[in-house]
Amino acid sequence: MASLVKKIIRGRPYYYARVCKRVDGKPKIVSQTYLGRADKIIEKLRAAPAPGQPLEAVVREFGASAALLTLARRLQLVEHIDRHLPKRGSGPSVGTYLLAAVLNRCLAPGSKASLARWFDSTALRRLLPLRSNQLTSQRFWDHMHRVPVPALPAIERDIVAAMTREFRLDLGHVLFDATNFFTYINSFNQRSQLAQRGHSKEGRRSLRIIGVALLVTADFRLPLLHRTYPGNRPDAPTFQSLAADLARRYRELAAGTETVTLVFDKGNNSRPNLDWVERSPFHFIGSLVPTQHPHLLAVPADQMRSLEDDGLAGVRSYRTESKVFGVQRTVLVTWNQALFDAQCRTLLREIAKRRQHLRALQWQLRRWREGKIRGGRKPSLAGTRKKVDGWLRARHMRDLVAVQVREVDGLPKVNYRFQRRAWEQLQRTLLGKTLLFTDQAGWSDAELVRGYRAQHHVESAFRQLKDSNCIAIRPQYHWTDQKIAVHVFCCVLALMLCGLLQRELSRHGVQDSIPALLDALSRIREVDVLYPAREEGGEPVLRTTLSQMTDEQRTMYEVLGLEKHAIRPLDAAP
Which helix (H) or strand (E) holds 80? Predict the structure, then answer.
């Protein structure tokens, strides 16, 4: 019988192939062959010629799914879910099903009916204790149904606590905002109270919408808390309804953090909300509606100081004290050259559109007056005014474009002019300015500006949740509140994994957007190559390897420790 024997010679291991046989009833070594050190053996085996022409090859996605799975295991995602939602009987757990859904939202968001096909195209088919026939839409929905909505906050709490410990997050700044997502839920479906008609922030007024509130870190927009709410609820009442949850999450996360500063935008301003912030353990930075504070907008540029020496080129500030909802606060009036230029370009473009519409209307009415248009319905004064009002409905347009519509010889006549003085006044007072208020009186102007600018992280998180190629809350194929809530929960977990991926790679010098990072990782493929049997009647030989990697892909592969998920060619041989 042949065996492999290791011998330690001068502190180094060497391997021998030894054959033993029974001689006169006793075991005896009949041959011993020196093989060498382990690395030399592997090198020789890998250099061995392939056993003939390949029969076929199967290519599967490896890099992105292995990377996200690594992060999910560091978070113990499945374990936290299963602890709250234990399942009797055999088969994959609820946590395993939800993890499959989370990874699918990250890499190829689609319907649950397409989940099995996607799963089979990735290395997850061998990395997760799941088979594709267990991922039918019905079985997945059955496991989604096992997740009660009241359990979601507790599961999220445990996962967030694990994330802050494992990845040592900076919780000095946290950002809150809310938005809504349109759905295609039927208008006559009465089973959902979350999907309502309201002010769609994407302009889809004819569709029902759901609201999602997020509390994220300024450190790569990692979600700390989320809630799903009816889409017709405005931002300020949403903030108020989540006050207790925000305070509770603060107490859970604040250990080891000296202060936590909550950043929110002007849409959340109301007296009850600011009263709660005053009583809460949070410090805060918020923004004011500029037009409600004309005395602050009137501060001239020569009273503002430049923040260029603080690393904020093109930014000027004016600091004062003012009452905000009855409480004396530190207020910072800021002017940003880049914002000023962008707002000017946007307004001038919109003005040009209105002037073009008005010129075309003037020309059409002139042709009616000259008798060059005879057929059709004659323009009316009321209809013309209604059309003009529609064009001027956008912000600032009525102030910047003066239009007169009157009747002359039985037909409407339109005159318009650009209000240059109003434009100059707007440039002096409003454009480029942001009004901040805070209880952090000890912070410098530059610290307050940077603190508020972090708000773009939560806005970026919402943009990511609306990206149809990655995470993508919509389109969602659910129409009951429980399924909608679980679906949003999976999307928020997907946002968490993608944010952690970006953060880990950024710390090692790989800087890029989430879609770009996932695309680069997804192009690391796992290739199964099947060769003919070495001898007649034998089994075919399977070799598994990875596709060729770029320098960037190799760096990501090593940084994320993906080698532990890869199959080496020798491991695949029968």
Answer: helix 77-84
